Amino acid sequence: MNSEFVCTDVYSFQRSDSAPYDIVFTSYGAVCWLPDLNRWAEIVASNLAVGGRFYIAEFHPIYDLLAGYSYFTQVQPDVDEEGTYTENGADAIAKLATWAHPMSSVINALLNVGIQIERVSEFPFSPYNCFEGMVEREPGRFYLSHKGNHVPIVYSITGKKG
């Protein structure tokens, strides 16, 4: 099976030179950089073949609320200055703009463009030790607790284009 991985600005991407994709995947930490989820979903759907599969694995937005940010989408982004999480920018500080998106906004944006949601899952762990206070309770599974309870830290959505 042949695969093609594309790294580009999602809002400007349009696949016009060949057939649409059989699979479109959105990975951890991508949604918070997007001010317009409806536009993102339109790009996903327009580049996904009929019967094609969509999958997203993303950090749960409840963490934003616990960290002091809005759970619900706002017109203006949250802007902070912080270091990078990449391995090659240890001392770099950058101004970052991020947008909160509740799971309902992600799900509804996908439904509105014809992605049939087949499964929504939530997980009390992350494969990355990426938030303050996380504890590795199992190899490769980092948990966060709030008032003695596990916090949902990751969610996934599986769907197909009808």
Throw out a few tags for this protein.
alpha+beta; globular; 162 residues; 3-stranded antiparallel sheet
Write the SSE topology:
Blueprint: E1 21-26, H1 37-46, E2 48-59, H2 62-66, E3 78-83, E4 93-98, H3 103-112, E5 115-123, E6 125-126, E7 135-138, E8 141-143, E9 145-146, E10 149-150, E11 154-161
Parallel strand pairs: 1-2
Antiparallel strand pairs: 2-11, 3-4, 5-11, 6-8, 7-8, 9-10
Helix pairs in contact: 1-3
Rg estimate, integer Å: 17 Å
N-end to C-end Cα span = 23 Å
Rounded average pLDDT = 91
Going by helix content, strand content and strand pairing, the class is alpha+beta
- How many distinct helices? 3
Which stretches are poorly predicted, pLDDT < 50 over at least 5 residues?
A: none
Secondary-structure element pattern, one letter each: EHEHEEHEEEEEEE
Into which percentage range does the β-strand content fall? Answer: 35-45%
| Beta strand count | 11
With strands numbered from the N-terminus, the spatial order across the biggest sheet is: 1-2-11-5
Shape: globular
The largest β sheet comes out as: 4 strands, mixed
Helix content: 10-25%
